[in-house]
Each structure stands twice: as C-alpha cells, then as structure tokens.
Please model this.
Amino acid sequence: MRTDSSSTKPGATTAGRLSAALLFLSLGVTSAWSQGWSQWGGPHRNFMSDAKGLAASWPATGPRQLWSRDLGDGYAGIVVDGDRLVTMYRSGEQDIVVALDAQTGKTLWEHKTDAPYAPSMNMKPGPGPHATPLVVGGRLFTVGVTGKLHCLDGNSGAVLWSHDLWGKLGGTKLDRGYSSSPIAWKQTVILPVGGAGHGLVAFNQKDGSIAWAKHDFPSPYSSPILINVDGQDQLVMFMQQAIGGFDPDSGAELWRHSHPTQYGLNISTPVWGEGNLLFCSSAYDGGSRVLQLAQKSGKTEVKELWFSNRLRIHIGTAIRLGDHVYGSSGDFGPAFLTAVEIKTGKVAWQDRTFARANLLHADGKLIVLDEDGRLALATASPEGLKVHAKAELLRNNAWTAPTLVGDRLYVRDRKSIMALIVG
Model:
C-alpha cells in the first residue's frame, strides 16, 4: 500500500519537487502525510501526536474545512494510511468498512458484512461499529459490532481471511457490542476474544492462524496497549474487573491488579508513562488508580500509588502531560474536565466548559471534541485550562476520538465525517 501519497504534475523535476517541499516545510507546517495514524490512539496509541505548526487559534466558525460528507451510524475511529482514510459504519444490519480519499472524502471501496444484533444486545446507547481498524503492511484488520474479525487488502477491500469471534471461536457476547481495537505485535495481531481458553488471542497476520490463545476472562470493552517495564515488553489489558500485563509473545500472564466496576464496564484506554506509572480509569463507581510497575527477580512487582473516585473516565481518552493526567470525568451526569497529579491522585482542578469529551494532544495544545459536537483548541496545565478557540461543529452524538495527521484533523459523529485543516 502506498505510504508516500505526494503527487506532482507530469514533467515535474526532482529539483522542483525538492524546492516545493522545502518551501512547504519553511512555513512551519508538517506535511499532512509525514506521519501516519494507523491504529487506535495514533502512532503511540496514546492520542499524543508529533505534529507541529498547529494554529494558535481558529475563527468562530472553526478550522478551515477541506470536505465533509454523510457517513452513517457508528463510533469507530478513523485511521490514515497514505492518501486514504479507513473507518467503519453501520447501515441496516450490515457493518461496513469504508476507505475514503483523504483529499476529497470520496469513497474508494467498501466491504460489507451481515451483522444482525444478537437478541441479548442493547444498542440503544449507540449502534456499532465501535472498534477502530488497524493498518499493518498493506493489510487492514477490522472487528464489527458482533465480533466479525476481517483481514482486508488495503488497496481493494478484498477479504484475505476472517474469523467469527462470537460464533466459531465462542467469544464473549457483549450487550453493547464488541469494541476493543486490535493491536499489532511482530507478525501477529492481538485482541481479546473472551471465554474459556481464549480471553486473549494472537492471530498470525498473514493467514489468520492462531499463534496463541490463553486465559478464561470475558472479553472487555477496552483496547490493549503495549508497554515496556524495565526492558520487558508487556501487553496491558483493562479487563472487566481488573487490569493486567501479559507476554505478547506467548500470552502468559505477568501480573494482575483488581479494578472492579459496575457491570464490568472498564472502557477507557490505560495510559503508560514516565516512572513506570500506569493510569487507568472508569465510570460506574470504578474511579481511577495509578500502579507503579518494576522488575524484580524476573517478576513484575505492582504497587498501587493511589485510588480516587474524583476522576471517572467513561468512554473518553486520557492524556498525561508531565506530572498530571487530564481526562473528562463523568458518565451520564455533568462532565468535568479534570486534572490529577499522577503520583498522588490530588485533583489540581475541574472545569465544566465542555460536555463529556475526547482529548488529543499535539504541539503543546489539547484538541477537545465533546459529545455535543463542540470542537476546541486549548492549553492544559496544572494551573488550569485555557481555551483558545471553540466552535459548534458536529450536529449529532460525537463519541469518536479525533484523528490528527500533520495539519489535517479528521472528526466524525453518528451521521457525518469531515476533514479540517488546523495548521
């Protein structure tokens, strides 16, 4: 699949292309295609982007719009692969993977899967798909709301292999639908399946064969992350009532720590950072806690530094900046954007400017998208939140975290998707 989508007119010289590139970079804006966003959470799976040259403010109408179009129901994130975007939506009883031209928003191809809801499912809070696609080496890995896993050719959308996680593999049927976004590790793709013997499963990317399958825990709603603890790579999974670390090569459990919540709804993605500190948070009386991990005598030691119910992240993202973590606290009541000291759990401040929101960080700024469709540019510090610009942008329920590649920001709600220029 193309990784360099820059285009030139016929007959353009190498010198001309170089001059144009140097001129563009001299403007202080990173090329829209200089970075990828190939998975849930972006390059580092933590909603932290390396993009530079973002605007200091926006007009009242919001950033300049490159394009917008109708899409359809669903909350899957948007991934960027070269000059195409990939996401998922639902129409009728089908889950649809769609590839769009990043410059125009036009459909390049679609792959449709029959996915009628199971009788036990309650999709009133919002239809799927929920899981964000994964792009690896020209392949797309997608999971629909009823647990249909597909590996697709990125250029055409053709099926390379597939698995029915809830059917043939007997995975956990979730009443709100499957939502865990797959993660790549070496030549495998790993995701929770749930059920006896396959709480976690690693599939070979090439042919879909199972590299390993282990554990008996039910499938969670959260997405796994990869961390390194004193030289050891670990896969962290926020399970329904606990958080734990696993060997991504074999699936062996390395440690586990209790984090109970009502209905098993641990949804948000944990945050790993300096000091070997792991932050996790959930709503439904789950609260937040920070664990300090360390290797000793070949084992991982886990020390809980603090627990607090003051920050309860429901479906949003959390961002760690320095010694503080920032997140939108609240489930179905008022939401407070909250700053918490990472080492102590002390609340630095709470702010009610936004409804329940997703956060993305780049170039020293927060991009905030709340569920009411309000998009904002802000700076967060231990002293408080400074909002530089905000605009009423989306009209429908906006639960999908934004995607940023260079100076292009991609956002969606339940009905539409749009591309914005934020450089």
